[in-house]
Amino acid sequence: MLEVAGTIEPSSIELLKDVAVENNRGLVAIGAGLAVGLAGIGSGIAEKDIGAAAVGAFAEREELFGKGLIMTVIPETIVIFGLVVAILLLFL
User: Fold this and answer.
1) 42-50 contacts: CB < 8 A, separation 24 or more?
2) Residues 27-91, CATH architecture
């Protein structure tokens, strides 16, 4: 049987618990950042294609401006969902 020389003091155990809590907070912050960042990148890629098509449609027929504007705004809601997820991660 393996024996370890010395004992762990109670103050050392509390220090290790504090380090674990700080590590968890850091990982939650990274997760929140990824939620917003990846949602923003995906939304930007989608909005690029939709915006180009909307401008082309508006150039041909001016009455399509409202529909093109609405279609361009729809991917931005994905970023709002990412922000909500980040807020829930940070504060719950």
Assistant:
1) 42/75, 42/78, 43/75, 43/76, 43/78, 43/79, 46/75, 46/78, 47/72, 47/75, 47/76, 50/74, 50/75
2) Up-down Bundle (1.20)
* pLDDT per position as a tens digit, 34-87: 999 999 999 999 999 999 999 999 999 999 999 999 999 999 999 999 999 999
> How many angstroms separate the CA atoms of 8 and 25, rounded?
25
8 Å CB contact between 28 and 89: yes
Domain spans in the chain, listed from the N-terminal domain onward: 27-91
Give the start-end residues of each E strand in 5-81.
none
User: Considering the entire predicted model, what is its pTM?
Assistant: 0.71
Chain centroid, CA 78 distance in Å: 10
